[in-house]
Write a structure and sequence with these properties.
The structure is a single chain. The chain has three domains: 51 residues, atp-gated p2x4 ion channel (Helix Hairpins); 202 residues, atp-gated p2x4 ion channel domain (atp-gated p2x4 ion channel fold), CATH 2.60.490; 47 residues. It is 24% helix and 36% strand. Helix 2 packs antiparallel against helix 8. The structure holds 2-acetamido-2-deoxy-beta-D-glucopyranose (NAG) (8 copies). The site of one 2-acetamido-2-deoxy-beta-D-glucopyranose has 3 residues, from loops.
Amino acid sequence: MAWQNKQNRLLFLFEYTTVKYVGTQNKKIGLLYRIFQLTIMGYLIGWVFLKNKGYQVKDDTLESSVVTKAKGVARVNTTDSNLWGPEDYVFPNQGENFLSIATNFIETPNQKLGNCSENPEVPNNTCSKDEECTVGEAVRAGNGIKTGICLETHNGTCEIYGWCPTEIHRDPDPATIVREAENFTLYIRNFIRFSQLNFSTSNVPKENRSLYLKNCLYDETVCPYCPIFRLGDIVNKTGNKFEEMALKGGSIGVLIEWLCDLDVDSECRPHYSFVRLGSDVPVPIAINCLLRFARYFTDVAGDRRRIFYKVFGIHLEIMVFGMARKFCIIPTIVNIASALTLMAAVSM
Ligand SMILES: *[C@@H]1O[C@H](CO)[C@@H](O)[C@H](O)[C@H]1NC(C)=O
Ligand SMILES: *[C@@H]1O[C@H](CO)[C@@H](O)[C@H](O)[C@H]1NC(C)=O
Ligand SMILES: *[C@@H]1O[C@H](CO)[C@@H](O)[C@H](O)[C@H]1NC(C)=O
Ligand SMILES: *[C@@H]1O[C@H](CO)[C@@H](O)[C@H](O)[C@H]1NC(C)=O
Ligand SMILES: *[C@@H]1O[C@H](CO)[C@@H](O)[C@H](O)[C@H]1NC(C)=O
Ligand SMILES: *[C@@H]1O[C@H](CO)[C@@H](O)[C@H](O)[C@H]1NC(C)=O
Ligand SMILES: *[C@@H]1O[C@H](CO)[C@@H](O)[C@H](O)[C@H]1NC(C)=O
Ligand SMILES: *[C@@H]1O[C@H](CO)[C@@H](O)[C@H](O)[C@H]1NC(C)=O
């Protein structure tokens, strides 16, 4: 008895059940079934495969390197020069994925090391007697070191030792705008790689490269793949007036988007767009200022002197993003299988 019981218990291992199908001539149920089938087929083909490209793998691990080069010369009226080239107006000098182009400036000529009055706009530098001006103390947010003398004739500010006279404080002047900057060109070279799909390319066409680069200029409709841009066009595309932006400066984002379908077109192409950054936040002019720098020289008397520049300009930030797709058998099988599963569920 005992061994028979054991045998019965083990028998379930060798059991197999099948589903029993019931055929029916009911037109309503038949129609409903076909509609469900068609819906699922439509979903699979239309949505999963055509719309969402479910037969491809996506790769958004974009690695990118950007090199920029600005070109053009401009007439300027400064104490030390009347012509500016890229070496004068591009900051920093080696172009990367960000650069600034000077379009306006305020010049303080002929500064010399010595004693003079501090700019009265510098806060916390007022005094009524010499004791309030500690010798050797630096003026906070100021231009020099206190000499210990209170200059009552200058509305009571401490005298300083520094580059004198101090920087001229005023709003940027439309008369000093570097007008030719509108015609400066910016060459952007962008190498990208999708690491998962092991696909690399660049935004410069492979064929007739040097000839193409000599003659082309980016234009949304005529020449959308040319990597050379006119500064005036970039500003215009952001919906801003060049004169306005050149006067006080501003930031622009250059967006390079790569959407690559590697099945259709092995040469995937970039799409460029331009946005003004931070335009909805009102910023004081002092913050719009790009940078300050000085040029040093020795005058005829042998004294060290310098010309001090406060520069306004257009700051460009180049941002690269994108995605590549390519056929792959695994997502294809997974998507078909899930649709078949759905269909099987419907027949239940
Ligand atoms: C340059 O500027 C100075 C004053 O800042 C002016 O006197 C001079 O006429 C200007 N020169 C030119 C060529 O515009
Ligand atoms: C500046 O003032 C200090 C302190 O009064 C004095 O020692 C120094 O000689 C002055 N320098 C010049 C260039 O006048
Ligand atoms: C200016 O000095 C006053 C009093 O010494 C101090 O309360 C204030 O915080 C200072 N302001 C700045 C901007 O340093
Ligand atoms: C002193 O202050 C008066 C009025 O606040 C101003 O008109 C004048 O220009 C100031 N002088 C200096 C040297 O800053
Ligand atoms: C920019 O170049 C065009 C054509 O070369 C010229 O007509 C225009 O005057 C230039 N603009 C400036 C501000 O120099
Ligand atoms: C990536 O592609 C290059 C040529 O296109 C090939 O030489 C290299 O072996 C590939 N690397 C991987 C990891 O597949
Ligand atoms: C490259 O230049 C040659 C000669 O200038 C021309 O025949 C050829 O069509 C050009 N190729 C492309 C892709 O423009
Ligand atoms: C941009 O340029 C077009 C054509 O030159 C001009 O019609 C438009 O007013 C410009 N936009 C701005 C904001 O200056």
